[in-house]
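4.2 Preliminary Data

To establish feasibility before requesting continued support, the project team ran the inverse folding procedure on a target of 217 residues. The structure was first converted into the token representation described in Section 3, and no sequence information of any kind was made available to the design step. The complete token record follows.
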């Protein structure tokens, strides 16, 4: 089933761009129907405009309850015939208003290997902790912070000379691969959620064991 996507952004929108490119090149069976940002200066809005996709702003008002903000977002999504919502660099916690409007159809990408390092400033935390791997996670969204059932992940080695910026860039390249892939699995109806687990039907062979640094034993 082709996805009718609404993509929520707050910043650069490079994940949006990966989704737009995959859709245009026929690798992703989805149409981006609208891009919604909580801030007018998100470059992701410009990416939408260049792709001929409606770009809308629902400004974040700190004095307005989050539920009210989400009701306004849902209204825009519904007006554009959306059936699936992809959070892509979206910096707001969504509420039950949005989740109830699109049950089981809201996904997010996080630049770490959840459940490790949820929240913000993840690359700084990964380096400070001395982790040897990091990566990115596509997951279904629930009302927690980066806590929904995991759809797929990519593992990226952490280098001794990494900075938050170099690690972020290496992970971002993998984000741009696994997000369209996860959405394609969804479009193909291959994702089966059982409690916290997401199964792929039929299963696909995963990659082999990864070691960092190398293990010669
Ligand atoms: C990405 O690492 C994403 O995972 C995080 O924000 C970063 C920028 O995303 N949420 P984008 O370029 O705006 O898609």
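Position-by-position output of the design step:
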């Amino acid at each position: 089933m082709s996805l009718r996507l609404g993509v929520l952004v707050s910043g650069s929108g490079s994940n949006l761009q990966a989704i737009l490119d995959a859709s245009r090149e026929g690798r992703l069976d989805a149409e981006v129907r609208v891009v919604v940002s909580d801030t007018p200066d998100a470059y992701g809005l410009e990416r939408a405009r260049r792709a001929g996709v409606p770009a809308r702003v629902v400004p974040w008002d700190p004095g307005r309850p989050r539920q009210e903000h989400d009701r306004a977002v849902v209204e825009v999504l519904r007006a554009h015939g959306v059936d699936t919502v992809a959070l892509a660099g979206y910096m707001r916690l969504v509420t039950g208003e949005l989740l109830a409007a699109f049950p089981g159809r809201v996904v997010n990408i996080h630049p770490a290997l959840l459940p490790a390092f949820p929240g913000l400033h993840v690359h700084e935390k990964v380096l400070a902790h001395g982790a040897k791997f990091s990566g990115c996670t596509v997951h279904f969204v629930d009302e927690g912070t980066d806590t929904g059932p995991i759809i797929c992940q990519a593992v990226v080695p952490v280098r001794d000379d990494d900075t938050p910026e170099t690690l972020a860039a290496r992970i971002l390249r993998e984000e741009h691969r696994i997000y369209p892939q996860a959405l394609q699995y969804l479009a193909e109806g291959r994702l089966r959620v059982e409690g916290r687990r997401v199964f792929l039907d039929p299963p696909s062979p995963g990659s082999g064991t990864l070691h960092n640094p190398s293990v010669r034993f």
